[in-house]
Amino acid sequence: MKRRQFFMGSALALASTASPLFLRKLADASPQQKAARLPIMPTCPTDGEAIKLINAQMSRIAGVHACTRPFRHAGPRIEAELLGSKLVVHNYGHGGSGWSLSWGSSMQALRMAQAATPGLRTLGVIGCGPLGLTSALLAQHAGLSVRIYAKALPPNVSSMGATGLWSPDSRFCDLQHEADWAARWNEMARTSFDKYQQTAGLPGRLVEWFNGYKLSDTPFPVKDLYGSPPQTKDEDEPEYARFANDFLPPQIDLLPGGHPFPTRYARCCTSLMFNITPYASKLVADFLAAGGKVDIRAFNHPNELLTLPECTFINATGYGAKALFNDETVIPVRGQTVRLMPQPEVIHGLRAEQFLVMPRRDGLIVQNMDETGNFNNSNDAPDLVEAKAILEQAATFIARIG
Ligand SMILES: Cc1cc2nc3c(=O)[nH]c(=O)nc-3n(C[C@H](O)[C@H](O)[C@H](O)COP(=O)(O)OP(=O)(O)OC[C@H]3O[C@@H](n4cnc5c(N)ncnc54)[C@H](O)[C@@H]3O)c2cc1C
Asked: Is 365 touching ligand 1 by the criterion CB < 6 Å?
């Protein structure tokens, strides 16, 4: 039997037994959702040749981006606050899940603003990252006239340095707060996931399904996603809540010895990725096309909002909320991504040793998933030595694939 045929056969056998929850969810979905989801499930697994296409040489580096995840032990702040005669609904502090949860979180923030201000017609949104843009677009869809105030717009917001992976429970809150959030997180993740199903497949490849391979010499935990955070943590880093991220198709374990990878264990995980450059640009374009206004300005104190014409605001300033709203509970968690020149032929991701490769269309992303020293670290200067080290590791590993 040819190697590829063998993979396909064993993969189908494993997949058919390993997916009751996912299949049940498909069965529960409305006919319209079923039609949207079934055709986009990629086949899995592949052989090693497709992975070997990844070119992780230094000469391919197009940029190195460091930024901070805005983490709060108690989870994101999505709540209303009165500021003099104005209402501010906060929508910040999403840790490592801001892109993934943006639509669902912003939906909750908008609902709060509308509930507190019956007949709301105009809205000010502070911030133009994923949370600000989705807040603004949802408000427009609800018939509101919206102005975004922000000191920077994409591509100059820190979210542009993110990995771009569906990671809705990444550094969302600590374990102590897990139970408080479970229902609300689930609603947020569901709303966002459904929204992404409407976007996956649109021209421009803004959001896509892809297969990522996790390779290891030690067995994987029973459930362990492609971009799972490392087990190594900083001393002051908490245990994070782990919600049931079962929106994805089942993972497929390849039989030891029956795959071309240089590790004993290999697992295929299917997930969603955001091609952040075109995706953010499309969000901005959609906002402007719907008549949205943008005012570039930096606020140094919340009272500056009192001088604006709008009476109701959504505050989506991300890590900026720490200084602007004096919220000392916002903790910076540094992260760095290395962006390589695009390789359209690469459609699979790879996670092995310490590195992760995301096959993003706007440039392959390579990231060290095992770094320490990031918790409570606000340094957003790129570390080129680290960038080169992780690329070297990835290139050496890929060269070993048979
Ligand atoms: C390395 C790394 C990888 C990540 N990978 C992922 C991933 O794969 N998937 C995922 O879902 N999430 C990921 N994240 C997390 C995600 O990037 C964040 O949760 C997200 O950036 C938060 O977005 P935001 O809109 O709240 O903030 P931002 O994108 O930072 O936007 C804040 C906006 O507010 C404006 N602003 C701030 N302060 C002021 C002020 N004082 N006055 C005026 N305007 C102000 C800014 O100019 C900007 O427009 C990652 C984060 C990092 C660091």
From this structure: no
Say how many Å lie between the CA of residue 383 and the centre of ligand 1: 19
Q: Residue 45 has what pLDDT?
A: 63
DSSP string, 47-97: -HHHHHT----GGGEEEEEEEEEEE-TT--B--EEEETTEEEEE-B--TT-
Which of 102, 106, 151 maximizes ligand 1 atoms within 8 Å of its Cβ, making it the mutation to test the pocket?
A: 151
- CA of 77 from ligand 1 middle (Å) equals 14
Supply the pLDDT for residue 231.
66
> How far is the centre of ligand 1, averaged over its atoms, from the C-alpha of 320 (Å)?
9
What homologous superfamily is domain 70-162+278-331 in, according to CATH? Answer: NAD(P)-binding Rossmann-like Domain (3.40.50.720)
Q: Are the CB atoms for 237 and 375 separated by under 8 Å?
A: yes
List the residue whose alpha carbon is closest to atom 24 of ligand 1.
318
Given a cut of 70, the residues of the chain with pLDDT beneath it are 1-46, 229-231
| Residue 121 burial (CB count, 10 A) | 11
Peptide bond into 20 cis (omega under 30): no
Please tell me the distance from the alpha carbon of residue 237 to that of residue 339, in angstroms, as a whole number: 27
- Is the CB of 64 inside a 6 Å radius of any atom of ligand 1? no
For ligand 1, atom 33, name the residue with the nearest CA.
127
For the chain, domain boundaries: 70-162+278-331
Separation CA 349–CA 359 (nearest Å): 5
